[in-house]
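Weekly sync notes, structure subgroup
Attendees: PM, AL, DS (notes)

Item 1: joint prediction request from the bench team. They want all two components modeled as one assembly rather than separately. Inputs as received:
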Amino acid sequence: MTMRLLKRSFALVIALALLLSVLPVCLAAEAPVKITMMFSAGGSGAAITAAAKRFTEETGIQTEVLLFSLDEIYEKQILSLSGGTNDIDIVAINDPWLPLLKDYLVPLEMDQDFLGAFIPGMLETFSADGEVYGIPVRMGGDVITYRSDLLEEAGIDPTSLETWEDIYEASLKLTDKDNGQYGWSMGLVEPSNVVKAWYEYLVCYGGSIMNESGDGFAFNSPEGIAATEMFSKFVNDLCPPDVLSYSFNDQIDSMTTGSVGMGLLWTSRYTAVNTQDSEYYGLWDVLPRMPLGDGAPGVAVVDGWAVGLSKYSDHKDEAMAFIEYIGSYDEQLRLAVENSNSPTIADIYADEEYLNVIPQAENMNQALEVSCARPQEAFFNEVQEELALYIKLACMGDMSVEDALAECEVRCIDILDNYE
Amino acid sequence: MMKRHTLRERAAQRYAMRYIYPALLTLALVLLVPLVFSLIASLMKWNLVPKKIGWVGLKNYKDILADDKVWHAVGLTAGFTVVSVALEMTLGFLIACFLNIDFKGSKIVRIIVLLPMMLSPTIIALCWKLILNYDRGALNVILAKLFGNGARQVWLGKKWAFTAVLAVDVWINTSFVVLNVLAGLQSVSVDIVEASKIDGANAIQRMFRVLIPMLKPVLLVALIFRTTFALREFPIVYVLTGGGPANYTQFYALELYREAFGQYHVGYASAMSWLLIIVTFVLSIAYTKITMRGEE
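Output from the run, pasted for the record:
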């Protein structure tokens, strides 16, 4: 009797175990399709999350947006894609990453009318070998943003600010270090941040990182030295003392709390600075041009994000539907109005709805008229790390600008040799 | 009679081992396989970006020894290890001696002292990052209130970053030494201490001639653990400074991480991790030999 009871209990346990092991498979089979993507935390993350939420509401396709810092996204995506895993459907592409990521992306075959709506330069940034690999969804450029009331108090006419030297002098007038007031602010903590900011000075001084043929470096030049010296002066004389560890959020905080009067700000972060929560709302304006370097023209550095399709995705159709959705005119307009996105579609710049919300858009467009992007080379990430290190060493006074750039060039040549 | 007893013992051991083998096998799989894999990887040029893979023998090791960035990181790590371990061992020992005394509320004080060890280093580092923030950090706010704005310091800047990382590490890890030493102190017989008192030993003599020799095994364990952990210090420095400003706190583990997950040089990073394993292993053996020399 006891034996029979034991056998029955054993059979019951086995049956339960089998049921439990099969249950997740059955549940998974019935679970709705979910597409996964990673994106940069902060304003970009908020924009893509808002778009993903609307997409789910309209299509019923589930979305998961994982937010990380820029460097973490790079690290996690490369690990995931180089391992051939299917855990990411939509790939976030920062503009210099395309050469590294394109082998893991599906070329996007989309309607020419759809593609034709984008600003050509932005679309080209995410194209290679005649194929489009990413749809630009959040791009912008660094522009000079200033507190109009402070400039007025200091007797400075913003239209008179033409060169970096003019900007420096103006910011110096706004700086009162003893009372915690600073003239200038930038986000410089990650290597990509510091290089992007420095590159802005470099291009305005007529310099470049790579040479014209793309097989060597050109930053260790008289233009590079002049630009780096000016950059270092800004960091040391005008910025908060801990600016080298400033993230973009720290930069925004410094501007919204009123401790900084001017700054180099990414256009898509403008509304985060000019927010109604700040007592300085409505006082922030944008210079309609980039400052001139040493006789060189003012050039804006444009950069930003696109979305691409992973070739390992198990849900390519759903992921493509999302890419088309977020790249559509309506969604780009919504993101521009509600999430401060700089539009990637040309016609939105003339849209009344957009101009009503961001009247400074006109100045931003003028400032970005002459623009360039960072080099798109597979080795740029490594070069960027070296540049960031030596620029910071020069700013901290550990090396002269000349020595820093010379030593950095040697390192960069080593990196290039390793790639060849 | 003796032989039969041994055979029975062996049979019992064999029986017991049947239950231990699965755990040993699992350990071997999760420990040895990755170790061997990384050893093989360390002998290869293996880059994920751009994809490059090939056998290079000991070249990675030679390159590491000629890499001035690595040597910079080694110097920082060595300095950090020596100072942090010395401070943690000294403070930990003194605090444990104090906590070994029974006084009103001693149990609550013990719990408070041991709290940092129970929290995640990453969370602690994030809290300290807020405390050390230049603009709004509690430390600068207090300093400014007491001594004016000029007293504010850039705690995570060039001048203070290394010290700040060191201080946070000592704050977190001293409690580990306290816990070890306290457990050791409570196992020391009161009779021996009393006997030394009767023999005329003063407090300092009791500490150096009685307590420390008796606590040697416990101190050795704490020393080995703290040294190995300090050598591969990562979460605190990663969160607090990320190795910066520039490379002022770029410790060995951070440099290794940068090679592995910033540049995707898998082979090079594997060789770096093997060198760290070897150094840690050699140091542990050296500590044991030196500390136990007298007993042999």
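Discussion: Chain B has two domains: 1-42, 59-291.
Action: AL to compare against the crosslinking data before next sync.
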